[in-house]
Design brief:
The complex is a heterodimer of chains A (311) and B (395). Chain A has 311 residues and is α/β, with parallel strands linked by helices. Chain A is built from 15 helices and 13 strands. Chain A starts with a strand and ends in a 5-residue tail after the last helix. Chain B has 16 helices and three strands. In chain B, helix 5 runs antiparallel to helix 6. The chains are: A alpha/beta (311), B mainly alpha (395).
Chain lengths: 311, 395
């Protein structure tokens, strides 16, 4: 668990981060979202002390992060950034093995971990461990960047706009990969983005920042239904907030008993996607198909619509 | 042979006439027929009597040499295959050198060591044309760095063996060498020592200075500006400027004088070369560090590297090719500039150049100048290869 207490950063007379306090739960994805200059990156970089705070403190599992030298702290925390930041003169394998090597793992263990991670990220170790970063595609480079951040099995992974430089299709894939990886390793992820869709898609919790202040920090649905500030509703979008809300619930959660003539949608699809399917087919509802491929209930338009506004 | 003929035919059909080849052929032909191949001088300082190749050597030898040159011209004009061009250039080069050796033997009166047989303008132009043809062919072959270095050493070894064989002993430059043999070795070592020593000192000082400039942008302009000003001072003037303080130092401290620190001699030369070397090294270090990707440095720090580790493992390896380019500039520049050091008693191959100028003995000038050119060329080839090896994988 990460506890941020009254954290501030000033450069001269400019306040970049202004008294932010928040608790980040273990094994969850927290997304910090804001416009550029909102202080979101600075907040993230104060967690691993790439930026030293001028006020307040950060506790990692109850221990003050200032209790050890900054570089030792950073070796325990994964860090991935926009544009991947891979070392161009080192092979993919050496890049991924950077932190384990800094921690003094023996060569055998480093190699085993590198191979394991390459396989997790769907990169053939035989082919890619010895390759140089410039021989990889943009999406592959980004995956290696995340694999490198996870190499020493950190409990916490900080990501600063990690998918910002990717095209939409590769970005969607990278987001799905991140969700799968987070579930697999149980890592606590803190991710900074300016993309509200990304925040809603990935975040178990979303923090909205503006001008150095934390405006609201809650589950995505609450941000939509009970915005704490006009800026938060502007950020989350007034025009399509109903559809955004639908995108946060899966078809499986709302499926009721019965069978209905209509399109088939998987239980994992969001209500928004299910509604889109129903509208496209001109039907009144949809069949929900479970993970086993069998129908597991029906979903009516009325049930969906009832879910599209604050309770 | 059939392959070569086929290739020529192909080139003719396609009307591919090489532009460089045309220029080299015209220059070579003019050199062969209009300029003297050798010059015979009654002694080492008087102007000599020019002779063409045909006038000196038996018709059969002249014909053989002309055929070799014609082959080279044909290859230069028509052949697209770089190997063929290189082979033709080297064949003609050997032929021309053998003719020069033969001319030396033919024209030297037995027992007379005063008469000088010097290569004429025609020989030098032919040498230049064939050298250009060969280097152009090597460039087209684009050999890997390791192979280029091997090629360089092969050429140097061939040159040393040819000179040591005694075949060229009758030529004027080798006569000068024979007279100055002992000094030549000493001055060559002194030349290399001055060039490399001042380079080493400049690297030891310039690298940290460059890193400092990169880290503290406020001082960058001041330091680079100062070094720029030093660079604009002519070498002779800088020697003069250094003469007074070093002379005073030697007068005040006998220990300094015993260590060789005097107003004239190697000390001011080494210091001046060191000062000239600083700008390229500091500037390229700053440039190289600036070129390192900011995100790579940010990622390195974010993953827990200390400042020293970031410098040693990320910044230095990534800027090394640019820094080495600076070192290459300095080394080639130093090898040339050490020549001037001879004027203030610094020694080196420049000693022969200035002595030769003083005595109007052009052969003595060449005894100093040719090795300087060879040294500078070799240094450039070696460091270019090193830069290329280190830059691989960098991008």
């Amino acid at each position: 668990m990460i506890t941020i207490e009254n954290l501030s950063k000033q450069y001269g007379s400019t306040t970049v981060v202004d008294g932010v306090s928040m608790q980040i739960e273990r094994n969850s994805i927290t997304v910090i979202v804001g416009t550029s200059g909102s202080g979101k990156s600075t907040l993230l970089r104060m967690i691993n002390r790439l930026v030293e705070p001028t006020g307040g403190r950060v506790l990692l599992d109850g221990r003050d992060t200032r209790g050890e030298p900054a570089h030792l702290l950073r070796r325990r925390i994964g860090y991935a950034i926009q544009g991947h930041g891979l070392f161009p003169h080192r092979t993919v394998g050496e890049n991924i093995g950077t932190v384990p090597k800094l921690l003094g793992w023996d060569a055998q263990r480093v190699r085993a971990r590198v191979h394991e991670l390459l396989e997790v990220f769907q990169l053939d170790p035989q082919r890619y461990a010895q390759a140089f970063p410039h021989e990889l595609s943009g999406g592959q480079q980004q995956r290696v960047g995340v694999a490198r951040a996870l190499a020493a099995e950190p409990a916490v992974l900080l990501m600063d706009e990690p998918f910002g430089a990717l095209d939409p299709i590769i970005r969607a894939k990278a987001q799905e990969d991140l969700l799968a990886i987070q579930r697999r390793f149980g890592t606590t992820v803190v991710l900074v983005t300016h993309d509200m869709d990304e925040a809603f898609h990935l975040g178990d919790h979303v923090a909205v920042m503006s001008q150095g202040r934390l405006l609201q920090y809650d589950r995505p649905a609450v941000l939509l239904t009970h915005p704490a500030d006009p800026f938060v509703s502007r950020m989350t979008g007034l025009a399509d907030r109903a559809l955004r809300l639908l995108s946060l619930t899966s078809a499986g959660e709302l499926a009721g008993p019965g069978e209905l003539a209509g399109p088939e949608v998987p239980a994992t699809a969001s209500l928004r996607d299910a509604l889109s399917q129903i509208l496209w087919c001109g039907a009144q509802g949809a069949q929900v198909i479970g993970a086993d491929g069998k129908p597991c209930g029906q979903l009516t338009v009325a049930a969906i619509l009832a879910h599209a506004r604050p309770a | 042979m059939a392959e070569a003929l086929g290739m020529w035919a192909g080139a003719l059909r396609a009307q591919r006439i090489d532009r460089l080849g045309t220029l080299l052929t015209l220059a070579g032909a003019a050199a062969l027929y209009l300029l003297p191949f050798v010059v015979v001088k009654a002694n080492r300082i008087v102007p000599g009597e020019p002779h063409t190749l045909a006038a000196v050597l038996p018709p059969a030898v002249t014909l053989a040499c002309t055929v070799c040159l014609a082959l080279a011209a044909a290859a230069a004009l028509l052949a697209a295959n770089a190997r063929l061009r290189l082979a033709a250039a080297l064949l003609a080069l050997v032929a021309v050198l053998l003719c020069l050796a033969a001319a030396g033997d033919a024209l030297s009166p037995a027992g007379n060591r005063v008469v000088r047989i010097a290569p004429g303008a025609g020989f030098w132009v032919l040498l230049l044309c064939l050298g250009l043809l060969a280097t152009d062919a090597i460039t087209r072959l684009a050999p890997r760095p390791g192979r280029r270095v091997l090629l360089l050493f092969a050429f140097l070894a061939a040159a040393v063996l040819a000179l040591a064989s005694g075949a060229f002993d009758h030529l004027s430059i080798m006569r000068e060498y024979a007279v100055n043999q002992e000094r030549f070795g000493r001055e060559l070592r002194q030349h290399v020592a001055l060039a490399l020593g001042s380079l080493a000192a400049a690297v030891v000082v310039g690298l940290p200075l460059g890193i400092f400039c990169h880290r503290v942008p406020r001082v960058r302009e001041a330091i680079l500006g100062t070094l720029n000003v030093i660079q604009t001072v002519p070498a002779i003037a800088l020697f003069g400027i250094l003469m007074a303080p070093l002379g005073a130092l030697a007068a005040a401290y006998p220990l300094a004088e015993r260590l060789g620190i005097r107003g004239i001699g190697a000390a001011p030369a080494a210091i001046a070369l060191f000062l000239y070397s600083l700008l390229p090294i500091v500037a390229n270090t700053v440039l190289g560090l600036k070129r390192v990707s900011r995100t790579a440095v940010e990622a390195a720090r974010g993953m827990g590297m200390t400042d020293t580790q970031v410098l040693a493992r990320i910044e230095m390896p990534l800027s090394l090719p640019v820094i080495l380019t600076g070192i290459r500039v300095v080394l080639v520049q130093n090898i040339g500039m050490v020549t001037v050091a001879a004027l203030i008693g610094g020694g080196g191959l420049g000693t022969f150049v200035f002595q030769g100028i003083g005595q109007t003995a052009i052969d003595l000038v060449l005894l100093g100048a040719i090795p300087i050119v060879v040294l500078a060329f070799s240094a450039a080839v070696l460091l270019d290869a090193l830069v290329e090896v280190l830059d691989r994988g960098g991008h």
